[in-house]
Design goal:
Layout: H1 3-15, E1 20-24, H2 48-61, E2 65-69, H3 79-92
Parallel strand pairs: 1-2
């Protein structure tokens, strides 16, 4: 990690601010990759509204880095709506 990222991470830790978050949007996947760490059983998914609320809370908390991941995130029909919401909230909070 370079010096700037380390300094930002250390400061976030001191302030109790979540620096980086990985949000798994789904467990669903149309592949069976041998290296995948997820089981692909149906664990249910958060609704679009729930995810948008969570993104707003993350922005308010000061999240700097957001990784959208999961199974195959493009299987969510609302993926681009979620992505636009993440951009709006997290860029507005910076």
């Amino acid at each position: 990690m370079n010096a700037l990222m380390q300094e930002m991470s250390d400061r976030a830790l001191r302030l109790g601010v979540p620096f980086s978050v990985q949000l798994d949007l789904t467990y669903r996947c149309n592949e069976q990759c041998v290296h995948c760490y997820l089981d692909h059983d149906d664990h249910g998914e958060m609704t679009t509204a729930e995810i948008k609320d969570l993104l707003r809370e993350m922005a308010e908390a000061g999240v700097v880095i957001l990784t959208l991941s999961g199974g195959e995130i493009f299987l969510r029909k609302d993926f681009f709506e979620i992505l636009e919401c993440a951009r709006t909230y997290l860029l507005a909070s910076s």
